[in-house]
Amino acid sequence: MITDKINQEKKQECVKAILPVKDALEVLNGRWKIPIIISLKFGNKRFKEISRDVQGITDKVLSKELKALEVNQLIARTVFDTFPPTVEYSLTEHGFSLHNVITALGEWGTSHREKIIGK
């Protein structure tokens, strides 16, 4: 009886721990969103500047990912009244809140690379 209660509590804790991680992974899914965020961490940029930083991404995919990041309020898109119009992307405060997560991922990635391939 007590064991069943403990097992039920552990199951609830597990589900409670998984939900926010699933939410975060849903927002940051794919191979491009985090590199785009890292690019913008170094300053506001125009589309082509981001494209040069995030090597291998197509313009179509970059456009789609920028829209998704904007919907999730991680980046802001500013259109300047110039001819032709200038569009600049920047991290929002919410986007900057990912700093510790991205730093931890980078540190883990470096450690993992050293462990697996020795570099």
UniProtKB/TrEMBL annotation:
InterPro entries: HTH_HxlR, WH-like_DNA-bd_sf, WH_DNA-bd_sf
Keyword Cell membrane: no
Molecular-function annotations in GO: DNA binding
Keyword vocabulary terms for this entry: DNA-binding, Transcription, Transcription regulation
Annotated ranges, domain HTH hxlR-type: 19-117
Oxidoreductase keyword on record: no
Protein name: Helix-turn-helix transcriptional regulator
Species in which this protein is naturally found: Sphingobacterium phlebotomi
Higher taxonomy: Bacteria, Pseudomonadati, Bacteroidota, Sphingobacteriia, Sphingobacteriales
